[in-house]
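Incident log, structure service

09:12 report received: a user says their structure output differs between two submissions of the same chain.
09:20 pulled the input from the user's history:
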Amino acid sequence: MNGSDKDKHAKIQPPTKLAKVTLLVGGQNAKTASQQVLGPAKKLRFKIPEESSPRTRERYAAGSKTMHVSHSSASSLRRLWNVDGAEAWDDQTGNIQNQYLNELSEDESSLAPAPEGEVGNQNWTSKIEQAKNDPALQKARNRNAARLRQADQADLKILSKYLPSDISSWFPFSVQGPSDVFEPPPEWLEEVLAIARTPCSVPKKPKVKFSCDEESIEHNTMILRKCDWDMETLFELHRGTTIDHGSEFRPIEQLERVVGSHPNFSFLKTILKEGFQYFLSRELSEFERLEEFDAQFERGNHKSASQENEAVAQGLLESDVKHGFALPIQAGKLRLVKGVHLQPGGMVEQFGLNADGSRKRKRRFTHDLSFSITQQDASINERVDMSRYPEMVYGWCFSRITHYLAALRYHHPGQRIYISKFDYSDAYKRMSQSPRTCAATVVRFAEIAYIFLRMAFGGSPNPAAFSGFSETLTDVANELAMSRYQPCQGTSPTVKETHATIREVEDDDTEVAPAVLPALEVSVAGRTSNRDCFIDDIIDCHLGTDENLARAPHLVQMAVHVMSRPHGGDEMEPVPRKPLLGPDKLDAEGRSSERQVVLGWEIRTRTFEVRLPQDKYSAWVSDVQTVRLGQSVLLQDLESLVGRLNHAASIIPLSRHFLNEIRNRCVRGPKRGKVQIRLTAEEKCDLELWESFLTIANKGISINLLVIRNPTRMAWSDSCPFGLGGYTLAGTAWRIRVPKEAQYYGDDSVNNVLEFLGMAISVLLLLKEARDSGEKFPCLLVLGDNTSAISWLFRSGRVSKSMYYYPTIKRIARHVAKMVTESGAQLCSQHLAGSHNHVADTLSYEGSCRNKVNALTGDCPPNDVLTHRLHRYYSQLIPDGFEIHQLPAEIESFALSVMQTTQKSWIRKERQRTKDRTGIGDDGKCLPKSGDWEMTSSSIQYPHRVSDCCWQGDSSCNTEPMTSRNREDLLQDVRSQWYCRLFETPLAVWHRRSGNVTGTAPSTSRTESMVDNRYTQKSNAC
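09:34 re-ran on a clean worker, output below:
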């Protein structure tokens, strides 16, 4: 509604001579069975337009009618709201209340189909499935779908001659996730507190001995012999001891009182009763099993666990034995154990923490369940059926944390945010394995064989199994936060007074950096603290309120206390047992801090950035330089480097496609012996770029660049073998020609590369616009109609090295990635149908170069004339202020250099093709010896003004102007594609569900999104 309409309806008296319907929204709803009081009524009346259909006017011709509607009775509200564009009238204020009705319609409990003939979104929002037993998700879906439909409908009312230049008109809202905030029942909190006060009996001492001395090993071997070498019988012999299943956790009946309704409880209950099981897709025959066992026995362990590291590896295994995690027996008798499998051991190096928060290097023993000798699928990991385990969502933990922090800072600007972290000690080794799985998880050192009674570090299903517990534990902590729990009601015995003190804050003069609202918005209303987990790490993010700071040390520790068997004390535990939460790590990480290392990254909430810790930066840059400057590199060293860079790529998205080729060298290389790999020049250039990426990560990357955002700047581009062109939403247009001196002039084979160059120019122009306007953290959306060019912006590492234009593609990709990363910007791309890319397509034309004439460029007009024509005929598709300019010098220079590289690639292609096709006696095709031509700005520039050339054309041309319908199609095509991608993004990427312990919310799923209904794996029903 425009300003004049608002003034017209600003009177208290409604218009006369129109049928009216009064609507009471809220208040006492006489139609509800409960007679529930819904709050003060809001009296609205509909003004029925004179141009309404006869049926509508006849329906309301009897004068003023009144209808009582509750806030939740959205179906009735929608029936009135969809009456031929009727407007709502507020008798008290005399204002039009369309927005009020829009907000109410977003709260519908079911999604009504889109009105017939709805434009712009191809009705895909009307096909969103109902979320069964998940009202919060369905409410969020309805709200977001309604907003998109309303935005599309609003496009029809745009009366401007030009495209809207305000980017918020294209992407007017963020997609909001479901809000699961509720107050758990008081009875549940009472159960939690009661169980926290309930002591647990300490298991009995086992009959086997957990020591590696000769006497203990012989004793254990004798007991296993008495059990007929059957692990099943051994476990039956140890019922009620520390070996028994579930001995590290609370009794099942206690857990059921707290988490019995949780979706993961059935899976957890099975593990606690029967032990962790390998579900295999194929069983080895007895012959195959023994053949593999003998081969593994003869080969021994990996070199990383032998030679200089053998003593360390055996020391770590002895520690596992001491704590009852592994059973040592005589290696010579191992073959007699029923169903036994043998795997090699290895060593990896990791970082740990001291009590003061400083980092230390530590080594971890690994059990390689992926290694096989006799057959490709003889290993356990190769045969595991992962579909029978719970979904793993921990891989997106860091992404969910950054999205939550962004929403929290955006809605609470200027306030401090703290993070604390809790590490569940010896996580895997708390989970008892089934007898059959124990026999399949064995390593040998010299004359001692170690049968793992608990989960080993190296099994592919182990993260899923332990996450079934840790995700549930995290949900308990989140539900405690939503309850009225206070530490005075009871605490975990592991909490110390020092845990309530803040560990680290920034200087007082350090500014609290602002956040940009993500495109996928986590609801933080009533939820100023949140916990997420990555396998055994539980991360607590909370606003710096007094209540949050007081409860932060207790929530996770209380959840651990009520789900795990409390430590009985060193004197009472029959086998040495480590604390559930390591005291050193509690002091170092369990206290609220504005700086916290989370999953290997240092998050600074005050400056709102993520940094690569200095120790990692120094070590990794040194490794990159060593590999890049060396003649060759050991395969194992290259694999280690790839693993580290892959970790760094999690916060530098554009860096990923400069790792693919190096990773492929590891995958395709031989695996035996000390393999030396010589990297190519291109691969070393990628490593050189990685050095700059690591430096940027060490200095800090804003969280605003790590979350999914709506675009803040947008540009279009197009190309053909004769020219390129494009424009930005700010009105900056450009076009350059392919020089006729270039051998590839007019050759269609080069078009994909030119399309990629056009998109790169769009990116560089948008970066310049953002820099000139002082915009921080711009999000750039570049649109084009070439799918190859769109994918190369992010996946150039997948381009085959045998492709003739490979050097050109890599050069463009490196330059774009470097400029975007150094500028502190986000980059995204989207396909645009060629039928909607009229302006950019016109800018790439000149004369009759494509064997057809474009009416606007047929007479080869200079830039100022073409600008005038586009304003006259294509105004609906360009922003106000649209003008064709010459490219800035630095961008033009880049385009020239890319064209030169393309020329050389084209000549190599043609020479190879001529060589392949030329027979004896044929002359072949005459090609130049060099790809050089005279490169100047004038060779690619179009004349800028009429005065710059001898153009003799007419400023008029014979064509039909574009209509508002073309503008609507363009706007809605861009918007609908963008929001469709947002709607389809799995919730697990950006939003953790809370309220699944006692509430109705389901667990976070890998497949659930704002569009699709959730998909439940078979394992969830176990």
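09:41 both user submissions now match this output. Likely a transient worker issue. Closing.
09:42 reviewer note: The mean pLDDT is 82. The chain has 31 helices and 26 strands.
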